[in-house]
Amino acid sequence: DRFDANTYIKLTKALDRFDLVGDQGLDNSLSHVKSKVLVIAFTSDWLYTPEQNKEIVNAMLRIGKDASYLELDHKHGHDSFLINSPDFLRTVSAFLIGKTEEDKKEKRNSGSTHSRYDVKKEADFKIIDDWVEPSSKVLDLGCGKGALLEYLRDTKDVFGLGVDYDLNKATSCVARGVTVCQEDIRKVLSNLKDNSFDWVIFSRMVEELEEPGKVILEALRVGKRVAISFVNYSYWKNRYRFLRSGVRIRNEVYPDPWETSKLRNYFSVRDFELFCKDMRTEKIEFSIGRKVFHRGDWVKTCKFLPNLRAGLAIYELIKK
Q: 211-225: per-residue pLDDT in tens?
């Protein structure tokens, strides 16, 4: 009962005749947008495809607008938005209303750490919080549910853009009021202009990327500074356990057996510093700035023999 046939025909004709790009290009057409925008695409939509929706969001991000992008995997084609879809309703509700009671409960509980992984996450956030200046522009790659960007926004008036491929995590970002793109990290980076962010953050994310070295260099093109944290694979306990048992390490940090694990490019402190040394001959020149090493408890810091003694490493890369 939403539309009668004549109304639907008129709406369709209006959409067909409307040229969003115009004579001046898409960026110019969207330059007057002042509101916060959420673009939702459906994978099976043949009329307004995900790629076309991404073009709109990419243009808005290029010109500094506050635009988020989510993509829903539906099989109903262009009519997906007419179907009673829990995912669609949840994302729209997250954008218009904000956090659910579950989100609020999670935030209340976030202050208490229950595992080593939680402690590591908190240590990570504290260091990055110390480094990022007020009113900075921050790109968080692999942002998860947007907790870091939300905190930086609320405490330091930071403008943040998060990137995460997981729909549920991206929806949580929207509920927090954090701008997010549910997209491949490399595609988002390729669309952004040089020096468009003050900081690009990889919070325990580099290990999960294909060809991570190329992605780091691309992040240095987009950002003036890059913060990278990672678990040091050459930590002495890892070496000892492998020497003693001869099998792949499994614990809270490395939970999966080899046969079921996803792509993981584990590396050491020394591996990373050799990469930084070798890559300085490339087009983008950069130097290592601050660096912090946490011991195996991810609380105490260490400076002596970090490749052996550090459990977690956090580096600042500065573009020259």
A: 999 999 999 999 999
CA 244 to chain centroid: 37
All residues at 6 or more sequence positions from 164 whose CB lies less than 8 Å from its CB, including other chains: 142, 143, 144, 170, 173, 180, 182
What's the burial of 283, exposed, middle or buried (CB within 10 Å: 0-12/13-18/19+)?
A: exposed
Q: What is the mean pLDDT of residues 62-77?
A: 91
Alpha-carbon gap, residue 227 to 317, rounded angstroms: 6
Answer whether 41's CB lies under 8 Å from 54's CB: yes
For strands 286-294 and 137-141, give the pairing.
Answer: unpaired
Q: In the prediction, which pLDDT does 105 show?
A: 60
> Which residues form the domain of 9?
5-97
Element (H, E) at 148: helix 147-156
**What's the angle, vertex CA 204, arms to CA 171 and CA 56, rounded to 5?**
40
CA 243 from chain centre, in angstroms, equals 36
pLDDT score, position 113: 46
Total structural domains within the chain: 2
User: What distance in Å separates the CA atoms of residue 270 and residue 276, rounded to the nearest whole number?
Assistant: 10
- H or E stretch covering 58: helix 50-62
Per-chain mean pLDDT for the chain? 87
* Helix, strand, coil percent content, the chain, rounded in steps of 5: 45, 20, 40
| Residue 111: pLDDT band with limits 50, 70, 90 | very low
Tell me the residue ranges of DSSP E strands in 15-89. Answer: 37-42, 67-72
Residues paired with residue 18 on neighbouring β-strands, in sequence order:
none
pTM summary value? 0.86
Q: Of 91, 97, 94, 96, nearest to 72 (Cα)?
A: 91
102 assigned to some structural domain: no
Q: Which helix (H) or strand (E) holds 57?
A: helix 50-62
**Which among 69, 97, 125 is the end of a domain?**
97
